[in-house]
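Quick one: structure for this chain?
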Amino acid sequence: MPIITKLSFQKRDPSRVNIFIDGQYALSLSAETVITRGLKKSQALSPEELQTLVQASHEGKIFAKIINYLSFRPRSVKEVKNRLNRYLGPDSLELQELLVAKLTKLGYLDDSKFAAWFVESRRAHRPRSRRQLASELISKGVPRELIDQILSELSDDRKAIRQLIHKKSSLDRPHLLAYLARKGFSYSLIKEELDKIGVEE
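Got it. Here's what it folds into:
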């Protein structure tokens, strides 16, 4: 039977442990997994146990990649599923769902929090209409009921329109109308705000 001959913490990532089987490096596992499974030097492993550890090692590496992916900014469930599909391929849906469930349970994935962050970020740095925000959130896979809930808490589009008019003050009225319409604002609201500010034809 295969025997664990050495366990050593990785220098690059101390949270993972290198496992040596019969004197040769075989795989790496999270320290938590090593402790949970009670792995130790001189322990004999059945072929089935070794295969289970190999699978756990693979899952652990993919999980670490996804955690890194999530470290840059919040992500929607759909974004994470798409990334997992890139890592694992379309034939691993069961593992993908398992990892998504784990990420959700640990608080890394929450479409409601993602949508709130997304809207706040967009409105603060790149003002846009609620219609455009809804379209972008739909493309991120956020459920429609969550989108409606988040956007219902926003003030109307007037503030965003005013910010964009100020930002694009060098444009004449026709170009401003076209620009704001592309951002998803209604024609009547655009015209009303342009009239208030006094932007001439």
